[in-house]
């Protein structure tokens, strides 16, 4: 206490003179360098400061210059003695500000002063090197420290290892870690964390987990960042279960996962399609209040896309866009990929365009996705521009090349496709097997034999295709042409090839033959057939047919030639397959017959049919297409002969073939033949389906054999075949035409009671027959009922209703319905307007009828003669001759072939009301342009007689007699005028 009072500290840590010295030296920082002399500044402190107090003043300085100058003054004082402590203080300050050269000089000075550096001094120097990234100097200095047998503290080791890790010098950091362990320095939790990170970065999974387990054994609880790192490491190496176990362990420790950990796990679930667990993790994130970042939202969008929840993906994207979180290219690309999966190419392109407009950098992957979009859209120009942009990032990937090549081929730019392949090969683009196959497919299709062989050679030299069955099969075809495999040959044949590694052994065993790539054989078969190389074609076809799927592939190729319209190749291949002792697939034979039918080459179709006819027992498709070919070529009699031949041979005839035949006979108007076929079908008790029965009923309806149609329906019910909506529709028509309205109503009600979903056609049919029976009330009620059932009336139904109102003269109802039709968005047609005109004329509203014709014309619907003639005839009958003349002129003004009905109506009006002169004038105008007509010629005879021109009247009578046209004696002139 006495000493404390003597020092006059007054409660301060240091004495007043020490505090004053610290303050004075610190204040020098405000003065420019060289503007002061430290000896003068510290003059009042000479002999007053002990060595320990000078060390305190030195330690409390903040600027390195003040440390440098004060240390220089300190060394001039009598109290100073060289010590490792004071040098360590100076080293620390120099290290903090990065004055490594000065630090090195001070360290050398310390050694020259005879001060042996201790653990702290060496550690300070090592930390200075580590802090400023002087790793080479640090490791060199560390070696010198080791030579002095000085072991740095764990803090120094942590500093050095951490510094090396930050610069990705993981190998050197791990070497230090090993030396630290060898030196017996106990690591801290921080040490383990950085070491595990380095092992992870180096991909040393086992070492990382060794350090992790050692960490836990040492009693340290790993931090979230350590767990996250190891979870990510396991996920990258496909160790799904280990990642999930680590996460469970972390949660048991009560550690809340970070965004990075959640993103890693979501990615893992996404790749393994474990979407339910992904959704559970999202719920857990919400519970733990882990706020999702853009990366997590991007993964969520991808998951929604995989689940087909496209709307949810779009909503998520919109939500994070509103939050301002969409800043990363990967998020935009994820949304674009979702749109592509949904088939919305335009939306995908729009997302990528938004990304571009926001100046977000396009990576190589973005260009790949953009290119795929344009290829899906078939926008060749944009695709080519994008492909050029992709080239600037390096050689294109195989998938992008496939997209471009397929686009050229789809759009028919074959020459561009060929040039594209040349560029790819010239630039040494790495082909994958699929791209290689696509190129080969084009070469084979275009008959480019030399290019095919050249590309095969290139691929054979690539180690990527060493085990490719596709390439091996092509090599077999090239080098094994002289080794033809006979069906009965049991020995193995080795195909000569230049490269022993690519030696292909082919024998007749199924195992060996199944190793061949049938796609390659299909391509080559197409190529050599195009080249007309018979020997090669035979060889490849033999090899192909001996493989398990060979016959199927040959059939597929026949169908392909048929689709391309190449009948000669298809038939040639068909014949070769038969020649080699095989029967082509029924579908292939049928498709070839169908092609000849479409080409109207019935004889060719018969040749194909004959080539397999002997082996046919129940080949339904072949007979069906042969019958169809006969029908397409207009030879219905041959089709019937084939049908009867099938019956005679007891070949089971399917319902589709029978339906096609009956339907064709009906369309040709051969109703008796249709009936005969139906009768044979019933006699032979052939199995029929709903469609067949519907076809039969409709055929008999069109033939007018309504009773037989009813019997067919009864047979259908007794056979247990369920009627369809079409059945009931047709049966309503059958009973309706037979004037059995009650039966039609019964049929309609039966359909409703059986919960058959009646469509508009059924209702329209029933309404029509109500209308024809004059039961407009029931028709109107059914029309309302139809709408109540949620069935929206169409144009046909509205026309039926308006026609019905027209027939009973209900013009107000017809007009009201017409307005409802317009409101419902139905466009009236010519028949609608005709019904309205009839309605207005029935009620003698001639002006409204004329307005309707004008409305038609304004709507762009050209009125027919029927529209004009209804109004013309009505006006003429009413004696409104001038109005009738006006309508007549309008009707015939633009017509090069005037309608006879209009001429008759006008002529009759003139005659009925005694306009003889006008009637004769009209006749003489039209006599040369119309066909001879009984009424027109008879009217002319009466008119000429009326004016006393017996010569002309007699001449006309003679002409009518020669043409066999009867004369109408009862026609009179002015009959209505007299009555009036």
TrEMBL record:
Gene3D superfamilies reported for this sequence: Tetratricopeptide repeat domain
Cross-referenced Pfam families: PPR (PF01535), PPR_2 (PF13041), PPR_3 (PF13812), PPR_long (PF17177)
SUPFAM superfamilies per record: HCP-like
Sequence ranges of the PPR repeats: 83-117, 118-152, 153-187, 188-222, 223-257, 293-327, 432-466, 619-653, 689-723, 724-758, 759-793, 794-828, 829-863, 864-898
UniProt xrefs under PROSITE patterns: PPR
Domain of life: Eukaryota
Assigned keywords, A-Z: Repeat
Domain PROP1-like PPR, chain residue ranges per copy: 159-308
Protein family per UniProt: Belongs to the PPR family. P subfamily.
NCBIfam families named in the record: PPR
Protein name in the entry: PROP1-like PPR domain-containing protein
């Amino acid at each position: 206490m006495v000493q404390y009072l003597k020092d006059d500290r007054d409660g301060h840590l240091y004495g007043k003179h020490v505090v004053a010295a610290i303050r004075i030296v610190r204040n020098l920082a405000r003065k420019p360098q060289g503007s002061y002399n430290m000896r003068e500044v510290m003059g009042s402190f000479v002999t007053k400061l002990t060595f320990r107090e000078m060390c305190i003043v030195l330690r409390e300085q903040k600027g390195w210059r003040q440390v440098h100058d004060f240390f220089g003054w300190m060394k001039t004082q009598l109290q100073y003695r060289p010590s490792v402590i004071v040098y360590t203080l100076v080293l620390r300050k120099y290290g903090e500000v990065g004055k490594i050269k000065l630090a090195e000089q001070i360290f050398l000075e310390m050694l020259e002063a005879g001060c042996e550096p201790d653990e702290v001094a060496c550690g300070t120097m090592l930390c200075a090197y580590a802090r400023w990234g002087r790793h080479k100097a640090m490791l060199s200095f560390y070696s010198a420290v080791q030579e002095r047998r000085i072991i740095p503290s764990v803090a120094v080791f942590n500093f050095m290892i951490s510094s090396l890790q930050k610069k990705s010098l993981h190998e050197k950091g791990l070497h230090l870690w090993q030396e630290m362990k060898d030196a017996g320095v106990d690591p801290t939790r921080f040490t383990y964390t950085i070491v595990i990170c380095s092992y992870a970065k180096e991909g040393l999974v086992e070492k990382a987990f060794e350090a992790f387990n050692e960490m836990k054994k040492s009693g340290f609880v790993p931090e979230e960042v350590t767990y996250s790192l190891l979870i990510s490491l396991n996920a990258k190496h496909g160790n799904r279960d280990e990642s999930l176990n680590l996460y469970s362990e972390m949660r048991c420790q009560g550690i809340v996962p970070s965004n990075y950990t959640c993103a890693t796990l979501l990615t893992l679930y996404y790749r393994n399609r474990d979407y339910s667990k992904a959704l559970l993790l999202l719920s857990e994130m919400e519970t733990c209040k882990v706020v999702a970042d853009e990366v997590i939202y991007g993964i969520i969008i991808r998951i929604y896309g995989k689940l087909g929840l496209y709307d949810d993906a779009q909503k998520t994207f919109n939500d994070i866009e509103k939050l301002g979180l969409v800043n990363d290219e990967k998020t935009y690309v994820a949304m674009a990929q979702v749109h592509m999966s949904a088939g919305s190419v335009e939306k995908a392109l729009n997302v990528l365009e938004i990304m571009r407009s926001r100046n977000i950098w396009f990576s190589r992957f973005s260009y790949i996705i953009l290119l795929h979009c344009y290829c899906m859209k078939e926008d060749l120009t944009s695709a080519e521009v994008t492909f050029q942009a992709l080239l600037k990032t390096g050689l294109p990937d195989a998938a992008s090349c496939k997209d471009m090549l397929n686009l050229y081929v789809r759009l028919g730019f074959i020459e561009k496709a060929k040039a594209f392949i040349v560029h790819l090969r010239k630039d040494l683009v790495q082909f994958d097997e699929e791209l290689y196959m696509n190129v080969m497919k084009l070469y084979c299709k275009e008959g480019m034999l030399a290019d095919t062989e050249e590309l095969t050679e290139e691929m054979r030299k690539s180690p990527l295709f060493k085990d490719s069955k596709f390439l091996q099969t092509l090599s077999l075809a090239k080098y094994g042409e002289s080794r033809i495999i006979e069906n009965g040959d049991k020995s193995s044949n080795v195909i000569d090839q230049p490269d022993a590694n690519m030696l292909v052994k082919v024998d007749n065993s199924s195992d060996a033959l199944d190793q061949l790539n049938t796609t390659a054989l299909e391509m080559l078969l197409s190529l050599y057939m195009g080249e007309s190389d018979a020997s090669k074609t035979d060889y490849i076809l033999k090899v192909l047919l001996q493989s398990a799927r060979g016959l199927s592939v040959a059939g597929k190729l026949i169908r392909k030639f048929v689709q391309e319209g190449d009948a000669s190749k298809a038939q040639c291949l068909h014949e070769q397959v038969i020649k080699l002792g095989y029967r082509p697939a029924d579908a292939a034979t049928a498709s070839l017959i169908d092609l000849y039918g479409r080409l109207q080459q019935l004889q060719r179709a018969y040749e194909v049919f004959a080539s397999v006819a002997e082996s046919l027992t129940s080949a339904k498709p072949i007979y069906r297409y042969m019958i169809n070919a006969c029908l397409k070529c207009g030879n219905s009699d041959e089709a019937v002969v084939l049908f009867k031949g099938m019956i005679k041979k007891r070949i089971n005839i399917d319902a589709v073939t029978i339906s096609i035949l009956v339907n064709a006979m009906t369309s040709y108007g051969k109703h008796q033949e249709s009936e005969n076929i139906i009768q044979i079908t019933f006699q032979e008790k052939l199995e029929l389906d709903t469609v067949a029965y519907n076809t039969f009923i409709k055929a008999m309806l069109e033939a007018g054999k309504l009773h037989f149609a009813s019997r067919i329906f009864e047979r259908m019910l007794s056979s247990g075949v369920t009627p369809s909506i079409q059945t009931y529709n047709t049966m309503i028509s059958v009973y309706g035409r037979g004037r059995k309205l009650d039966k039609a109503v019964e049929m309609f009600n039966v359909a409703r009671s059986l919960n058959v979903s009646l469509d508009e056609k059924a209702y329209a049919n029933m309404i029509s027959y109500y209308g024809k029976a004059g039961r407009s009330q029931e028709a109107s009620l059914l029309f309302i009922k139809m709408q109540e059932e949620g069935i929206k009336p169409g144009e046909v139904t509205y026309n039926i209703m308006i026609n019905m109102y027209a027939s009973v003269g209900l013009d107000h109802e017809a007009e009201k319905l017409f307005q409802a039709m317009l409101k419902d968005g139905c466009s009236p047609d010519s028949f609608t307007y005709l019904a309205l005109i009839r309605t207005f004329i029935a009620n003698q509203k001639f002006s409204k009828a004329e307005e309707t014709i004008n409305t038609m014309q304004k709507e762009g619907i050209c009125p027919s003669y029927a529209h004009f003639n209804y109004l013309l005839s009505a006006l003429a009958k009413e004696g409104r001759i001038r109005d009738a003349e006006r309508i007549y002129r309008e009707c015939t003004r633009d017509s090069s072939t005037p309608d006879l009905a209009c001429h008759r109506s006008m002529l009759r009006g003139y005659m009925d009301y005694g306009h003889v002169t006008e009637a004769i004038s009209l006749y003489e105008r039209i006599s040369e342009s119309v066909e001879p007509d009984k009424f027109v010629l008879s009217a002319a005879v009466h008119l000429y007689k009326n004016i006393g021109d017996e010569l002309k009247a007699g001449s006309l009578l003679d002409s009518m007699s020669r043409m066999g046209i009867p004369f109408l004696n009862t026609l009179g002139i002015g009959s209505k005028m007299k009555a009036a």
